[in-house]
Amino acid sequence: MCMSSGHIWRENYEGGNPEAEALLFAELARDIMDVQLANRANARASDISRAFHAKCILGVDNAKLQILPNIPEDLEVGFFERGKQYDVTVRLSNANGVRQADFKKDMRGIALRVKVSENEYHDFLATNFPVSHARNAYQFVAFAKAMSGSKLLLLPRLVLAVGFSETLRMLRNVLRGARVVDSLATEGYWSRGALLWGNEAGPVRFLLRPSAKTTAAKPASATDPDFLHREIAERLREGPVEFDFLLQRYVDEKLTPIEDGAVEWTEDASRPIGVATLTIPSQDIDAAPGRAMERLVDQLGFNPWNTTETFRPLGNLNRVRKAAYTASSAHRLNQRFRERKPLRNIVIARAVAALFKAINAHVPWYRFGWRMSLLNISILREELRTKNLFDTELPDAPPQATPQPPVIPEAVRTQRTFDGTYNDLSNPRMGAEGATFGRTMRAVYKPELFGQPNPIEVSRQLMTRKAFIPARSLNVLAAAWIQFQVHDWVNHKRHSLGNAETDIALRMPNGELWKSTTGGQPEAFMRIAGNEVFRMAAGGYPIFKNMTTPWWDGSEVYGNTAEKALDLRDGGRLKLTEDLYLPTELNGMNVTGFNESWWLGLSMMHTLFAREHNVLAEALMREYPDWEPDRIYNTARLIVSALIAKIHTIEWTPAILATRAIKVGLPANWYGAPKDWLTQLGIWMLDTHELKGIPQTVPDHHGIPYSLTEEFVSVYRLHPLIPDDYQFFNYETGARTETLGFADIQGAGTDAKMRHLRLHNVIYSLGIAHPGAITLHNYPNALRQFKRMSGDVEEIIDLSVVDIVRDRHRGIPRFNDFREALHKPRLSNWEELSSDPETVRAMQVLYGNIDMVDTMVGLHSEPPPDGFGFSDTAFRVFILMASRRLQSDRFLTVDFRPEIYSPLGLDWIENNGMTSIILRHCPQLAPVLPRTASAFAPFRPILS
């Protein structure tokens, strides 16, 4: 509740609060984009137009707003200073969402953009009827949707949406307002919604009236579809067009309501007060400069929220305008995208989903043949997209004014930024460094249970590797690869160790002692550096920032800041030593985009892809000799990043999830559905979108802004893949050269080992070795006393304990809740978790209650489907997020095209994979690489 000039006024939010209203309005904004798609179809147009006011009659940027010298003192607010003059952009238009003839009945509109300075603009929007047909946001969108469809169904659609009496009222207002006019220069225009005019004056509405000097127009033409433009063009050739700018003050909720847009603020209730004049100067708008100016003006996205808080728009209709107009403008300008599902897909998919839900209660999806499994996965993924995506970013609630209308830097249209901004041009901060981790399910945050049972005891009894359990279908390249990827996607910021307020202290069992830092004193506690909490959510759980960019942008190689990237560059290339290895820091660590938890497997991947970048840069320089180094570098970075995404999608994932359904389904994400008629028919009926590969589609965020989730981080902790000891061989003779422990090939010693062993021998040696299976009792012992630098301190951590602690402190539900949230049945007996009686007994003693089992323990104990390297529960998070990482990314969808990547670049991505990259840089390995499998399958060992 507020008071201005003695009047009490208030704003009421849909859903009871600004946050709930913001969620409702986000959905209405998507409805507005559907209206634009329907309008395009109705007009048989190729381009998306505005949802309203599609046809521009006049667009000029040289008008003037002159503030009157005698305005009332309380109305002299902000830039409205007596005697001041400002440049104004003006757009006059027909109100319909389809560009129709001027002689058709329609409402008309005016949009003004007042420039106060380079940092301050104010948009004012008005139409030539004093009252809105819609009382509120819901009616506004419902009417737009009804109007965009068949006119035969207009009445029943409106009645279903708003009721019979409101339908009649809305139609009556529209019929009164829609008319043929003689000239847009002789019309009056009303804001129809309130705005704040400083704290003292309070709410007002504004209107524009033709100046008293305005002459009458000739009668409207009944045949010329563009007569309104011709009329005002002729008028401007003869002299200026002028309007008076007036304000109406708020009186009370009955006479001048703020939240009900269907009530007119009559002049009897609130007398208009003149405060300024608007002058469009005499000019020839049909000459070349005028035509160019109109085209630029017509590209602008006017929004009443382009202003300052002093002039903040008020009321329900104005609040929805920010979301709706922003979405509509971005959609029109190809900055935001929307596709409508065919009705058959919606109807058939719902029926099939219900059928599979009944069947899956008895038979899991992976028990079917590959076609039925793929269909089941597709239905399950759609359910997860609908029910398991939760945004954690603070909404714009209530909406905030933005005095600088967004301007998109031209460079970001064709190249990735390093901090992840501007991937989505309509939401520049989405997926940027420092954006929050999303959620796949409701958090369960119970600090009182953080220590129950003791994570150290859980680790020792259930996770510790007693004997190495190999994953025989893979090689250690697969283990290095996923760590290489995770470093690109996720990174929680940690506090420095040694702060009593932020350290997590776990009591050591049995009176044991632990050193948490190199050179530190043994003590009765294991100390873990706590993560920095960004804020606490309304639900009482912590939200964390992702300190890297979650896009598939190769940030682990290139860095996620412009400064870091510049340090790694050498013109269009990346810096490498003369013998083509990564440079080394003073402490012996390799110089690359991200080198935390560094070991030989990561060094191998980073070296390989840094070399790939440089070979590609040289190819681009040969193909395009006129390109500057910046373009060479940025294009090569785009190509390498896309190639990494492709390798992960169609090579690594089918290797670790080795079933036919996955081997068909994951390549379909990249190339589209299999081309046999039966699969094509099934996809056509259920989801036409999947007929094409994701790179041939447009971005889709599935209802909420893109992010990676805390649950995604949990299921991608695949540390059991790492062996504790390694043998290295000469690739030519097969002779063993060294046997080393993990400690010998990690940290500051990594670089020396890489140079000594040589890249080709490292790839060969890791290629013939198996990683560990992702199961209980197989956590690498080397990671249970792992040393890593934290600032100037070398921490000693038990990573198996840290993994459990992180889940609990981040609000990851325990395993049974986790399963249920992913639409799997809860477990009721321990034997469902493990067939090993000893493991079952240990879990029973540790946890007591099956609902207390940690998610990581459950994920590692749950028997996976045949051929899978991890559990079905983990797979559900994977199928939700795997396609999302591609589908949300502009550079892997709508901008995956030769104009951005170059023809050479697209050919490079199409014709290359992990095997060809290895062969390009280590051609001597050709005889040992798998012939019919990916490079993540075991290589052929050479017998010495």
Automatic annotation (TrEMBL):
Domain Catalase core: 76-147
Keyword vocabulary terms for this entry: Dioxygenase, Fatty acid biosynthesis, Fatty acid metabolism, Heme, Iron, Lipid biosynthesis, Lipid metabolism, Metal-binding, Oxidoreductase, Oxylipin biosynthesis, Peroxidase, Plant defense
E.C. code: 1.11.1.6
GO molecular function, one term: metal ion binding
GO biological process per UniProt: defense response; fatty acid biosynthetic process; oxylipin biosynthetic process; response to oxidative stress
Cofactor(s) it depends on: Ca(2+)
Enzyme class: oxidoreductase
InterPro entries noted in UniProt: A_dioxygenase, Catalase_core, Catalase_sf, Haem_peroxidase_animal, Haem_peroxidase_sf, Haem_peroxidase_sf_animal, Oxylipin_biosynth_metab
Organism domain of life: Bacteria
Protein name: Catalase
Organism, scientific name: Rhizobium chutanense
